[in-house]
Design a protein that fits this description.
Length: 747
């Protein structure tokens, strides 16, 4: 970099791409480096808030271990090759497997970072279509699939997830979430904790249900310790009280809700007295919370990962929606509402939706049902290891590290080593990609434009912000990369032009827009729309179409004051589109046009829950996970500033348990489950419910063959050595990562 370039510092505004909070950043850029990162005080949504992850975005951008070119396996080593060579290696290795054994012999795994970038959001679809396999797996089944199941059955749309109206509610009940560490999840809210403090300051009440005392519970008016995995039972006892005391009221949604009587009958067996032994929450506390929810001027219930990653995750997700509904707070300002993002499609006519179902196909080995087009990742190892027709013999991963993030990971690690061929789209040679035959690295975070397609649909306020790329990508864009991979899988050859896929994507979206009933561009000439897009990057053109045909869009000239990508780019601090507003019944996609409060599959699963709470509580110890504000699953552990300091990958143990087990602070303990064991340093912690121990998720960077220098110096232990691949929520296929029975012993 020249002295002149270094002296010409410029200010750039960019949305942070590292978590769901969508915070605005102000970057100081000198030449080809970011020299300072701070919160954007003028961002319309985050108002200057910045967490430690966003503050180190420059370090991630400069990570020396981020791969700059493709790698191809040669024997036991990797060789750096050209992009043409890499795609030819994919064609030579992957296509013969599919030709010999069929489409289902090639599986795909999609990781969490796909929802943090535009290419992952748009271009995975043509890639999977070209793959043509029913063996699709993703991080959704270790994270959030129960919420999609609940939303699908109730509202007809698996992605129709109501979010708490944090800025206007008078009462918030929060379960299984610690936004002080996570910044919020399935609820996009920059400075989540600041919003909770504002709730308290305006006279509202915060109730937190968690088996740990956290920074979030420290802010609460009431913290209820709960035994892990029993959230569904406790929420159903809340509903029992609402019905038994005549407090249930559907409010404004009563005219288009079905199944209230069935719900009332279904919760009769879940009295607070009956569930108390299982949950550990006293009946009088349950009744108090139920009455306060019903009496509050406005209220919202929010349940997250601790309620989803358990054996009754779908029931817990459903119960959250039911409590919001039967306190009159569903689709109500101050309650739980559906965002209307700038890229939303028009709502339909009630009664014309196709609804939701699961099980269109089942996994070959264990017969698990498909949900949203994918199978439980907990069964991926089964599909690789078990011989027979349809055995998975090759794998494509996109932005995922399942060796660390999925159940019984020791078994999956061994299974990946036995594949015939593996392709990974990933920036690192990590615990998963070390098994690959070809690694295709995407551009760095600031070498691509950014618009939060996923998270604006989960936002507590309707906003829009677009960030152009800060630096040019030295290699192909991620859209080009995924498009070429799709073309290889589609048999178009390793040298096929990615513009084939780009034009298919753009043309298809234009045709869909001009042909959609109620669209602002219905009946328009597609060529006119195409010409108006200019020569932006393909992902940006796709965003522009969505924005301009969305609820606030300019309609390609029909509404000159409306939104477009040009307008967003001219407003680098974002555009505020206003608070959330009711969207029902138009947003419903159920065939009945009503909220289906009592879906038969969920009602039928209640018998399993009733049987469990009828048993005496297990006196053994259980393991739960935990998050940290400087971590995000497994993919930020190679940033030294985010892992320095005292060891965070510790086994937290309550002092009472430690005394019984002969454990001392800083000593080593062996933790064992049905499927594995590990050794971790002990941290005495009276914030835990006795009988509960805790390990963080996403560590275990000590395996051979990786090239992540910082992570290897801070390896931690992999908690998924202990998670059981056979323990699932049966409706969603979600893995059980919390409430795992374990034995703990001193070393």
């Amino acid at each position: 970099m020249s002295e002149t370039a270094a002296s010409e510092a410029r200010q750039v505004h960019h949305t942070c791409p590292l978590c769901e909070a969508t915070c605005g950043l102000t970057l100081t850029v000198e030449g080809d480096r970011v020299t300072r990162v701070r919160g954007d005080d003028e961002d319309v949504f985050s108002r200057g808030y910045l967490c430690p992850k966003g503050a180190r975005l420059a370090d991630l951008q400069d990570d020396a271990d981020w791969l700059e070119a493709p790698l191809v396996r040669r024997g036991n080593d990797f060789e750096r090759v050209s992009w043409d060579e890499a795609f030819q290696a994919v064609a030579d290795g992957l296509l013969p497997v599919r030709e010999k054994y069929g489409s289902n012999a090639v599986a795909a795994y999609l990781g969490n970072p796909n929802v943090h970038n535009l290419a992952g959001a748009f271009y995975v679809r043509p890639l999977l279509k070209a793959l043509g396999s029913q063996n699709l797996f993703s991080a959704s089944t270790v994270d959030q699939m129960p919420k999609h199941v609940s939303s699908g059955y109730l509202f007809g749309r698996p992605d129709a997830i109501p979010v708490p109206d944090l800025d206007r509610t008078d009462y918030l009940l929060l379960l299984g979430a610690n936004p002080a560490a996570s910044n919020g999840s399935l609820c996009t809210a920059p400075d989540f904790m600041g919003r909770l403090r504002a709730l308290r300051e305006r006279g509202g009440k915060l109730v937190v249900v968690d088996p740990r005392r956290t920074q979030t519970t420290d802010l609460a008016d009431l913290h209820c310790f709960i035994r892990p995995g029993t959230d569904a039972a406790w929420l159903l006892s809340i509903l029992h009280v609402l019905f038994a005391e005549g407090l249930a009221d559907l409010g404004a949604v009563a005219d288009f809700a079905a199944g209230a009587d069935e719900v009332q009958r279904a919760v009769e067996g879940f009295s607070p007295e009956r569930t108390a032994a299982a949950t550990g929450i006293q009946p009088e506390t349950t009744r108090q919370v139920a009455r306060e929810l019903a009496a509050a001027k406005t209220a919202a219930v929010y349940g997250r990962i601790g309620t989803h990653t358990v054996e009754f995750g779908s029931l817990a997700a459903w119960a959250v929606d039911l409590v919001n509904a039967f306190t009159g707070n569903l689709d109500r300002p101050g309650g739980a509402l559906f965002p209307r993002p700038a890229h939303a499609r028009p709502d339909g006519e009630p009664g014309t939706g196709s609804g939701f179902r699961i099980g269109r196909w089942r996994s070959r080995v264990r017969g698990y049902p498909e949900v949203r087009g994918e199978l439980p990742v907990a069964t991926l190892a089964d599909e690789i290891e078990t011989p027979g027709e349809g055995q998975v013999r090759a794998l494509v991963t996109v932005a995922g590290n399942p060796v660390l993030s999925t159940p019984h990971s020791t078994r999956l690690d061994a299974a990946l080593a036995g594949l015939d061929f593996m392709v990974c789209v990933d920036p690192y040679l990590n615990e998963t990609t070390r098994h690959a035959d070809v690694i295709l690295p995407p551009p760095r975070a600031l070498e691509r434009s950014h618009y939060d397609l996923a998270f604006y649909g989960l936002s507590v306020r309707n906003v829009a912000n677009y960030s152009p790329a800060v630096f040019p990508a030295p290699g192909p864009s991620e859209a080009d990369l995924l498009a070429r991979l799709a073309l290889v899988l589609g048999g178009q050859g390793a040298d096929a032009d990615p513009s084939i896929v780009h034009e298919m994507m753009i043309g298809g979206m234009i045709q869909s827009s001009v042909g959609a009933k109620g669209s602002v561009v219905a009946g328009r000439d597609p060529a006119e729309i195409r010409a108006a897009l200019g020569d932006r990057e393909p992902t940006d053109q796709l965003v522009d179409i969505l924005l301009r045909t969305g609820p606030y869009g300019d309609g390609f000239g029909a509404n000159p004051d409306g939104l477009s990508l040009d307008k967003l780019e001219a407003n680098p601090h974002g555009i505020d589109l206003g608070p959330l507003q009711p969207r029902l019944p138009g947003f419903l996609a159920t065939p009945s046009g009503r909220i289906e409060l009592a879906p038969p599959p969920l009602l039928e699963d209640l018998a399993r829950l009733e049987s469990r709470i009828a048993d005496a509580p297990d006196a053994g110890r259980v393991l739960i996970g935990r998050r940290h504000v400087r971590s995000n699953n497994s993919w930020l552990h190679n940033v030294s500033a985010l892992v320095r300091g005292r060891d965070r990958c510790t086994l937290q143990v309550h002092p009472e348990d430690a005394q019984e087990l002969g454990l001392a602070d800083g000593a080593k303990a062996r933790v064992s489950s049905r499927v594995g064991s590990l050794v971790a340093p002990v941290e005495l912690c009276d914030d835990l419910l006795p009988g509960v121990v805790s390990l963080p998720h996403g560590w275990g960077h000590d395996v051979p063959g990786t090239a992540t220098q910082v992570a290897r110096r801070h390896p931690g232990v992999n908690s998924n050595v202990l998670t059981d691949g056979e323990a699932l929520d049966p409706l969603s296929g979600n893995a059980v990562l919390n409430g795992i029975p374990v034995q703990v012993e001193a070393l």
